[in-house]
Write a structure and sequence with these properties.
Elements (H helix, E strand, L loop, with lengths): L2 H19 L2 H14 L2 H16 L1 H11 L3 H11 L2 H12 L9
Length: 104
């Protein structure tokens, strides 16, 4: 549940402000562990996805999925609701009385 904080800081002032605002430990982790997550392979795959969006391939795929009744989309949605991160998130939100937790 730190994700919202990180995204808000990034939105407010970019990467430098986000790094300035978090702990030095978190900033160090970003510098030293971040490159292991965002690799050359990750960047290449992101470029492929952008190309799929720009060429309309993604849109065509989405239109076909919907015309068929969105079976893969709905199955993935159902499957992902049972992921461990979702289970843990529901439990954590139930302990946070100060937030207005939502369920779908």
């Amino acid at each position: 549940h730190e994700l919202k904080l990180i995204v808000d800081l990034f939105y407010q002032g970019g990467l430098s402000y986000m790094r300035y605002s978090v702990s030095n430990t978190a900033e160090f982790g970003d510098y030293t562990r971040g490159p292991r997550i965002i690799t050359a392979e990750t960047r290449a795959e992101m470029k492929k996805i952008l190309e799929e969006i720009q060429t309309g391939k993604f849109a065509r795929e989405w239109i076909l999925e919907n015309r068929a009744g969105a079976p893969a989309f709905k199955a993935t949605r159902r499957r992902d609701r049972g992921l461990l991160i979702e289970q843990v998130g529901r439990r954590l939100r139930s302990l946070m009385s100060w937030i207005n937790a939502k369920e779908v």
